[in-house]
Amino acid sequence: MSGGEFFVQEPSVHAFITEVQAVLERETDVSKRLAILRTPYRKLLEDQSWLPEEFRQINPNSGMGGGIASWLLYQNLEKDLSLFSLVVPPGVTTPIHNHLAWGLVGLYQGEQEEEEFEVEHHDHLHPGDNVRMSRRFLRVLKPGEFYELIPPYNDVHRIKTISAEPSISLHLLANDTGCVVRQKFDAATGRVDAFRSGWSNKPCPEPVADGD
Ligand SMILES: [Fe+2]
């Protein structure tokens, strides 16, 4: 049995997390971890049998806006590993945002357009800063396709659902993605703002005030 909190009681999810934890214990290099994790992650992404209906729903009270849901499926005790489904309604675009963690992101349902951005001075961003940013590429993601996230290189993007049904992407990220304070960016001005996306099925602790 793996430690941590499972929100989905499916053998395939338990087996996946057990495998992930074994890899994290024996391998410390992020790119090597990701290379090994691609195979079990692809298997989970291509298996349409395990994700319950409740984790495929949009969320009208979204912290990201636009009805975008972030359903936590598993989190370890240290909160430096989260598996979640991100559900984005048809036609809705996320803010341009970062993640502040390495991981794997892939499409489980629907179709997405993803724009990746290059951001200058990516470290030590503060709300109100203006950064220079440019679009690196735009691509379409179909079910079963996935990519590695390795900050700071490719940490900033926005996604839009271009299918008639909501898109669902499966995220395995090495932080408490819903509760960490991260950044969103205005494409026109480069303005940086802090935000927390929240989890749709778990409250976040109160943020620690500056100076504490
Ligand atoms: Fe994202």
Written overview of the protein:
Helix 1 runs antiparallel to helix 2 (30-46). The protein has a six-stranded antiparallel β-sheet, covered by helices on one side. The chain contains two helices and twelve strands; from the N terminus they run βααβββββββββββ. The termini are far apart. It has helices at residues 11-26, 30-46; strands spanning 5-6, 69-75, 82-88, 96-97, 103-109, 112-119, 133-141, 146-149, 157-161, 167-173, 182-185, 192-195. The longest helix is centred in the first third of the chain and has 17 residues, at 30-46. The chain is globular and about 45 Å long. The mean pLDDT is 94. The protein has one domain (5-195): Jelly Rolls, CATH 2.60.120.10. It has 212 residues and is of the alpha+beta class. Bound molecules: fe (ii) ion.
Please sum up the structure shown:
The chain is an alpha+beta fold and 212 residues long. 16% of the residues lie in helices and 31% in strands. The protein contains two helices and twelve strands.
Would you spell out the secondary-structure blueprint of this structure?
Layout: E1 5-6, H1 11-26, H2 30-46, E2 69-75, E3 82-88, E4 96-97, E5 103-109, E6 112-119, E7 133-141, E8 146-149, E9 157-161, E10 167-173, E11 182-185, E12 192-195
Antiparallel strand pairs: 1-2, 2-3, 3-10, 4-11, 5-8, 5-10, 6-7, 6-9, 11-12
Helix pairs in contact: 1-2
The protein binds fe (ii) ion.
Label this structure with key terms.
alpha+beta; 212 residues; binds fe (ii) ion; Jelly Rolls
